[in-house]
Amino acid sequence: MLIRAWLPALLCWVATGALLLVALPADVDGVPGGALVGYLAVLVLAAADAARRALRAPIGWRLRAPLAVGLGVVLLAVPATSAVGYDAAQDEAVEGMLLDRLDKADGIVKAQEGRPFTASESDYRTAMGLYRGLVRDHAGSRAADRVPGRLDAYYKSVAAPYADKQYCDAIEPLKYLRTLPGSVGDDRLGRLATWPDARLADSYYECGMSSLGKTGGGADLRELLDTFPKSDAAGKVAPAIRGAIDDRVAELKGADPCTATQELRAIRTTAQSLPDGTGSPLGSKADAAVEPGVYACGVDEFEDGRYSEAAKTLAGFADTYKDSGRRERARTIAIAAEVAAARPQAGGKLPAQRRAGSGQEFVFKNDGPSPVEVLFTGPATGTVKLGACAGCSTYSSRIEGRAKACKASGRSYPQKTLRLPPGEYHFLYKRGAGGTGLVRDHSDGAKVQGGYRYTDCAYVVSGGFGDFDGRT
Known about the structure:
Keywords: Membrane, Transmembrane, Transmembrane helix. The protein is an alpha+beta fold. Among the domains are: about 95-195; about 355-460, Immunoglobulin-like (Sandwich), CATH 2.60.40. It has 18 helices and 7 strands. It has helices spanning about 5-25, 35-55, 60-110, 115-135, 140-160, 160-165, 165-175, 180-185, 185-190, 195-210, 220-225, 230-235, 235-250, 255-275, 275-305, 305-320, 325-340, 400-405, and strands at about 360-365, 370-375, 380-385, 415-420, 425-430, 440-450, 455-460. The strands form 2 sheets. The chain has a 4-stranded antiparallel β-sheet, with helices on one face. A 3-stranded mixed β-sheet has the order 4-1-7, with no helix packed on it. Strand 2 (about 370-375) and strand 3 (about 380-385) form a beta hairpin. Helix 4 (about 115-135) packs antiparallel against helix 5, helix 15 packs across helix 16 and helix 16 packs antiparallel against helix 17 (about 325-340). The protein starts with 5 loop residues before the first helix and ends in a 13-residue tail after the last strand.
């Protein structure tokens, strides 16, 4: 301007304006390198041209040197000051970008409220990745300084089911939180590194106890004792299971001993799966409670008219608990239940614990090609097994059977003789496999009176029915 070179000055102004358009407002990427190189080239050329023109300009030599130095200082100070200001503006732009990233992570966490963890786990991991990146890659930034406070909210959001006492739902999110120290670092998490431990132990306990007595229960209690063996929650497991066993034992005398027995079986399975120090004594206690439970269940089934179930339950009891003092009683009720399943008149009340051995003579004979087992119940209860009759065959009708059964001269029929006390009896005939194939079971009844001798001839009619023939 002093040498009145207006066109070069205008070109410098244009170049400076263009640089400002490119550089402002400051962003995280700064000014493109090409723009800076181009502007620097313009400045060099402008300075060289200005020096050339100044040497020829009519300015006194005494003013020329000081003026040139002053203008040089100004020209150097302006870009230097601008560079410092621009760096500050760029740093602020970076801070703004990082704060936006922090807000994005906060928004992701906020959006997971009320969602199950299985659906939100991926989003939680995304948010944690943003938090971790801020702390790891931008330590010292305002956004990074705010991350610890955000992690408090993050942990509480993930563990929301625990706060809501939904302990089974809380297990997986709390297990996830326990993995974060390995990826984020204990030093960055601080007290949060161990924050999930007691909560997870409590959740294992509460969820495990809620499933105690159910098929498949016990996994959470095993996890508790394996993962947190010294925790307060682990110390409550054994007393709680002992109490649960005692509660079910008391229920065996109630209206539904079968359910109580089933739960005792499940508790036994759970106890036996626990570490030996805890599981062995509890398993033994539960196992001892199952035995009277099975018996009580079978009796209850009989009294409720569920005869097939009672027969199966009590026969199983007799086969399993061979040293039990209730074994013979269980067999008696099981026989009566099996008869009653085919002939309901045999049910109604539990059979007397009385075997055949006194009373009227009662002869059982088999006129059939296959073995037969006769179950009877009444004043006495028991079974009679007869082998197959050699040379015997089936009859074409019940009439023929009644007329000819057990009457062939010279034939030896398999037979057994019992003495039965007088009273109403019910019989169930169970045939094995013979030459004619499987034969259907058959039931019948008879009244035994004093002073008579009875013969029961079992035979087979085509079609698979047996018969009872009582004779004096």
